[in-house]
Amino acid sequence: MDNFQFSISLIPSGLAGLISLFAAYRLFRRRFSAGAIPLGLMFSSIFIWCLSITAEAIVPELPQKLFWLRFQFLGISFVTVFWLLFCLRYANHSQPNTSTFFLIFSWIPLITILLAFTNQFHHLLWKEPWLTVINGQSVLIQDFGLWFWINTLYDHGLYLAGLFVLFQFYFKTPRTLRQQIWLIIMAGLIPGVVNLYTLTGFNPFPSINLVSLSFLFTGLIIIYVLYFRQFMYIVPIARDTTIENLQDGIIVVDLQDRIVDLHLSKSLTWARMKIRGYM
Known about the structure:
The protein has 279 residues and is mainly alpha-helical. It has helices at residues 11-29, 36-58, 62-76, 79-90, 98-105, 107-117, 119-122, 146-172, 178-199, 210-228, 239-242, 268-271, and strands at 130-134, 137-141, 250-253, 259-263. The chain is globular. Residues 266-279 have low confidence and may be disordered.
């Protein structure tokens, strides 16, 4: 045990990894629901990343830390790819198909992983790293290279595109069904805002990885909506593409039999119905 270092700062990344693993498990159990598989893959990637961060913090020597630093990219490189695919499927977008999607959006992550494991030859992801001691712990410090910033811009582009899809879906959905979507948006906003903050180089808690801490809250929100908001059981419907084009009348109710949406039929029979007692 003398070759390892432990501190309370490991708790956030460790907990985030466990929560992400559990969220991925629950999502794969609901894999036939729209968006469940890409979201499950996203949390699986976050688990790998958090595991690597925790392992890097535990080992004290530079070669060991560099090994786990490279391993982190196996997890984090595809997070925003899976995020965008989830947003598209959750918002009922069937295009592009899955194979075409990965063919288009996987090149940058794959290049990033390759560069991470060959960084000692080109230093495009990070320059010569060094160790410093913070609160009695050996901490890895590195300056970022050119490809790191290219990959960061790409990741944030996919991230913002996913948020745009969700916000668009939010405003197309009846008000009474929007809460689930809003919780998903909040789950996505937390790590995005925290990551932008950490990129400024300012961290009031340098021994704690704030992004992994943000993923802890993201995982908790997803687990909450899975268990208490029927997430992946009831997916909000975009009204303009599904209900407005129906020829028949329809009443949409929630699990408590409350009317959440109403579409009047074009037929005279439906038009004569007395619905005041239900409203």
